[in-house]
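User: Let's play a game. I give you a shape written as tokens, and you guess the letters that built it. Ready? Here's round one.
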């Protein structure tokens, strides 16, 4: 939406990275507010949480027009506050409101740097607005604002990471990961050179988001068609982009290399090409290596040991999401490993995801990823059985789906799967968001992990058999919703 559309005191829905759209107010920037990084941004006050941030225009929507679409349980309190304000304004055109004073955090003596917008709440005072609120305008409440620069992100991480996931043992619970959320609103694109080994279904979407955000890339893929398409895309965006003929060429020229391949076996082949077994090969020395290939914790630890012995640094970064979310830059990055490497990748994670978390030592992220994938499979199987039963009862699936999407059981993931079931578009490569081969492989890894911990998983075991049956019938590259067609 064009920035001219938004005016001071407009009621809006505003979206900060990692959060859903939230009731908010467009405000006049405070004199002490951080400097906005691009022109198309608005200074936003969030109702309910009473936080401030610069938000891009593309993440702002009119309040009344999108009220039903963005209404969620966790926004009810903020919506109630907004509705009270609107109601008071309709009754009294001169309605005024108390607000808290905005206070920008002063830089520490050691780091006299520009502030950029990490929020914290403030304390209200009784000052009134100096101008009356009109029916079309919005009362503004100000709160304290805490800020940080992109160079201070590492310090923010150090003080915000909670206890890492512990090594699970029989009878002991897994530790709670710190839900690290770093405010990257004013974080610019890194000036480092990034490499990318592209092989999975998510690679294209991830790379296009990195290109759009002006990251400097060296890319290798076995698909020449993909490389040609990405080169054209980069040329249109006038971004530095070089294709490489081998993984070695990528790692040699890049500071940090992301590896997003189909499975650990492919990763082992690539690592051998990088000289991982050659004592005299120092290609990985001083290089960062970010593993995005879905794998089990033990394999990730093995890769970590191999790379660090060669003088490199290693970060596992599992991608929780599907192809559509990767295309939109809305996956969740579950990372584990070295904090400095995680910090160096923040601008990339901002471009490709809606949130990124550093969860502790190597193996932590893969464990959580496997559990989430197991849950995906169980949710999907439950949905499919419901639609199978509806079909057997001669209920029109279109009507059944419409009702399902209105219930609290619905979610973006299940809604997409239910639409796929109704449309029966299981086989099209364009419509495949989650290949059944990948989901079944992850289910198997999750079950192997449950065996090591002696944790029964009866639902996951049954779902795995359903997925295996679909693969036996030749559906490896079909969307996972195809189990509706391959049901017993």
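Assistant: Ready! My guess for every position:
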């Amino acid at each position: 939406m064009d920035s001219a559309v938004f005016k001071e005191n407009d009621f809006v829905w505003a979206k900060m990275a990692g959060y859903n759209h939230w009731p908010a107010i467009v405000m006049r920037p405070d004199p002490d507010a951080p400097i906005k990084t691009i022109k198309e941004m608005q200074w936003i006050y969030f109702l309910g949480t009473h936080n401030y941030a610069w938000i891009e225009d593309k993440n702002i929507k009119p309040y009344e027009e999108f009220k039903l679409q963005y209404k969620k349980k966790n926004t009810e309190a903020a919506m109630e506050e907004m509705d009270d304000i609107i109601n008071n304004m309709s009754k009294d055109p001169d309605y005024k409101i108390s607000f808290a004073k905005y206070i920008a955090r002063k830089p520490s003596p050691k780091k006299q740097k520009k502030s950029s917008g990490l929020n914290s709440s403030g304390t209200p005072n009784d000052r009134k607005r100096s101008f009356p609120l009109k029916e079309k305008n919005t009362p503004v409440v100000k709160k304290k604002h805490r800020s940080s620069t992109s160079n201070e992100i590492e310090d923010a991480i150090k003080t915000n990471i909670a206890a890492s996931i512990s090594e699970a043992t029989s009878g002991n619970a897994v530790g709670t990961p710190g839900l690290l959320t770093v405010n990257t609103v004013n974080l610019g694109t890194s000036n480092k050179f990034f490499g990318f080994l592209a092989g999975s279904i998510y690679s294209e979407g991830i790379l296009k988001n990195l290109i759009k955000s002006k990251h400097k890339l060296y890319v290798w893929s076995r698909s020449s068609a993909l490389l040609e398409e990405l080169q054209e895309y980069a040329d249109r965006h006038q971004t530095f982009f070089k294709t490489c003929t081998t993984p070695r060429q990528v790692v040699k020229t890049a500071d940090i290399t992301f590896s997003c391949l189909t499975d650990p076996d492919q990763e082992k082949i690539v690592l051998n090409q990088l000289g991982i077994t050659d004592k005299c090969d120092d290609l990985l020395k001083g290089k960062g290596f970010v593993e995005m290939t879905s794998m089990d914790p033990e394999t990730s630890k093995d890769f970590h040991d191999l790379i660090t012995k060669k003088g490199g640094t290693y970060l596992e970064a599992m991608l929780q999401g599907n192809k559509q979310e990767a295309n939109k830059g809305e996956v969740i990055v579950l990372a584990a490993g070295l904090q400095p490497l995680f910090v160096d990748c923040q601008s990339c994670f901002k471009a490709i995801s809606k949130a990124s978390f550093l969860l502790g030592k190597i193996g932590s992220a893969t464990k959580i990823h496997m559990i989430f994938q197991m849950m995906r499979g169980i949710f999907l199987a439950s949905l499919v059985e419901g639609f199978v039963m509806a079909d057997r009862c001669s209920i029109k699936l279109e009507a059944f789906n419409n009702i399902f999407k209105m219930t609290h059981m619905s979610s973006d993931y299940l809604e997409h799967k239910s639409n796929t079931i109704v449309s029966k578009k299981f086989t099209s490569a364009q419509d495949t968001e989650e290949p059944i081969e990948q989901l079944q492989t992850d289910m198997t890894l999750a079950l192997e992990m449950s065996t090591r911990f002696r944790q029964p998983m009866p639902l996951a075991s049954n779902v795995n058999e359903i997925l295996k049956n679909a693969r036996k019938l030749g559906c490896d590259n079909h969307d996972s919703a195809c189990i509706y067609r391959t049901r017993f």
